[in-house]
Design a protein that fits this description.
globular, Rossmann fold, seven-stranded parallel beta sheet, binds glutamine, 534 residues, single chain, alpha/beta
């Protein structure tokens, strides 16, 4: 029978609950347990697919083609396990399903209520993960305790505690301890109040993870323990980690959180096997040099819009014991007559995915610069589409070539919607999402990076390379190094005469993990290191 760990958060949002939940997942795996992760988001959007990445952070896509919250990216990177459709649920999705059942008459005329109908639906979603091959389900509740939207989730997890028995359910609450400089003190009151709020609902946390700028003095721990009703040794400190988020599992393990969980669940397991994880952290914390990579995209203050991409670059760097300095270059201020100095100083140029016209000419200019100067270039999704446009215009001489997403009436629609796709969009359907197989051409950079012919990568796009232009592109030296198994879709291109010029229609960054850096990121960083002369 599976056990459950529920991770809640109090005081403020953005505490890094997702990273903490993912770290707990890593610790459990390192003790030989089989786990599943779940993120429950109290907002009313049915899924995060249509939410602005500049507001909410990146949209993460699973193998089975669901657009989800970026925390699922942390789960995959920390645990090394793929997430699925089942790993993410929002209030919007729950209400949607309950209302549909009501319309179908499934409730036989009963009054539909938050409790039990919404809470039952939530419980069913949580329990769906507790399959026979799962030892522990780790479920994170988004938002902050006290939010109105979150109440039904808290009620649902309280009920699970009763139904499964308290030995089988553990509540981990994450809080924040503000440091008041003038008083020279860390304040526990907000934490006490958020725990009080939880207890009002009937949840007593078993462990408190305290995010803090400074170490917790013993008296502060005692106070938290006593007033929050949490055993002293289960008051865990999570300092703002200095070097890398991948230190968090080690920080929690040092304070015995994995052992606290084993004791709570009465599980006898060998000690945590964290050696590979420690070695990986060590290669990030003690690099042997730096490499500067320019990422040419749309930027706002919110870093999270390119979360997986930045992580994948760091993984690629760690594979060479290099720290990657990411230089964000705004595509909007650039064109071929105006190449910013920052672009000239990087050892590799990456153009990531994106939607819409804004900044496209800047991205194309950056790609031209990379192609002509022999600077390692990596194009992802829209980055591939821009590379096709650039190559068509500047190498094949197809003036005015463009993607029909940007310019419907272009004389050379080198990137366009597939005929089948066009019909789907009329029906309100949407993108090519999730994992698709791809066949690599032996002898190419792509093939050598992966070391295999058949791969699977995740997609999130509508537009494709126009097959009508394939021969013209190939005649000028563009190699179509990866195709869909039926040969109909161009998934990867490269330029053999260039030191490293690879573009892909999928999102490899979604599958890169710190313990298994993605081969394309590894090779791209390798090429950048060669470019800068070691
Ligand atoms: N906007 C492009 C498309 O829909 C690229 C999408 C992306 O980069 N994720 O095809």
């Amino acid at each position: 029978m599976a056990k459950f760990i529920f991770v809640t958060g109090g005081v403020v949002s953005s505490l890094g609950k997702g990273i903490t939940a993912a770290s707990i997942g890593r610790l459990l795996i390192s003790r030989g347990l089989r786990i599943r992760m779940l993120k429950m988001d109290p907002y009313l959007n049915v899924d995060p697919g249509t939410m602005s990445p500049y507001q909410h952070g990146e949209v993460y896509v699973t193998d089975d083609g669901v657009e989800t919250d970026l925390d699922l990216g942390h789960y995959e990177r920390f645990t090394g396990q793929p997430t699925t459709r089942q790993s993410s649920v929002t209030s919007g999705r729950i209400y949607w399903d309950v209302l549909q059942k009501e319309r179908r008459g499934d409730y036989l005329g009963h009054t539909i209520q938050m409790i039990p109908h919404i809470t039952d639906e939530i419980k069913a979603r949580i329990r769906a993960l507790a399959e026979p091959d799962v030892d522990v389900v780790v479920a994170e509740i988004g938002g902050t305790v006290g939010d109105i939207e979150g109440l039904t989730f808290l009620e649902a997890i309280r009920q699970i505690g009763l139904e499964e028995g308290r030995d089988n359910v553990m509540y981990v609450h994450m809080t924040y301890l503000p440091y008041i400089r003038a008083a020279g003190e860390q304040k526990t009151k907000p934490s006490q109040q958020s725990v009080a709020k939880l207890r009002e609902i009937g949840i007593v946390p078993d462990a408190l993870v305290c995010r803090s700028e400074r170490p917790l003095p013993e008296d502060v721990r005692r106070k938290l323990s006593l007033f929050c009703n949490v055993p002293f040794h289960a008051v865990i400190e999570e300092l703002d980690v200095r070097n890398t988020i991948y230190e968090v599992p080690l920080v929690l393990a040092e304070q015995g959180l994995d052992e606290i969980i084993m004791v709570h669940f009465r599980l006898a397991r060998p000690p945590a096997r964290l050696a590979p994880w420690k070695a990986m952290v060590d290669s990030i914390v003690h690099p042997e040099g730096t490499v500067k990579i320019g990422v040419v995209g749309k930027y706002s203050e919110l870093q999270d819009a390119y979360k997986s991409l930045h992580e994948a670059l760091r993984h690629g760097g760690a594979a060479h014991r290099r720290s990657v300095q990411i230089v964000q270059i705004s595509a909007e201020d650039m064109d071929s007559g105006n190449i910013p100095e920052e672009l000239e100083q990087v050892a590799g140029i990456l153009v990531p995915g994106g939607f819409g016209l804004r900044g496209t000419e800047g991205k194309i200019a950056a790609i031209r610069y990379a192609r002509e100067r022999g600077v390692p270039f990596f194009g992802i999704c829209l980055g591939l589409q821009c590379a096709i446009v650039e190559f068509a215009r500047d190498v094949c001489g197809l003036a005015g070539a463009h993607s029909t997403e940007m310019e419907a009436a272009t004389p050379h629609p080198v990137v366009c919607l597939m005929a089948e796709q066009e019909k789907v969009i009329d029906l309100g359907g949407s993108m090519r999402l999730g994992a698709w197989p791809c066949v690599l051409k032996p002898g190419t950079v792509a093939f050598n990076a992966y070391g295999t012919e058949r791969i699977s990568e995740r997609h999130r796009h509508r537009y494709e390379v126009n097959n009508g232009y394939r021969t013209r592109l190939e005649a000028k030296g563009l190699v179509l190094s990866g195709l869909s198994p039926d040969g109909h879709l161009v998934e990867m291109v490269e330029i053999t005469s260039h030191p490293w010029f690879v573009a892909v229609q999928f999102h490899p960054e979604l599958k890169s993990q710190p313990l298994a850096p993605h081969p394309l990121f590894r090779e791209f960083i390798g090429a950048a290191i060669r470019h800068q002369g070691g």
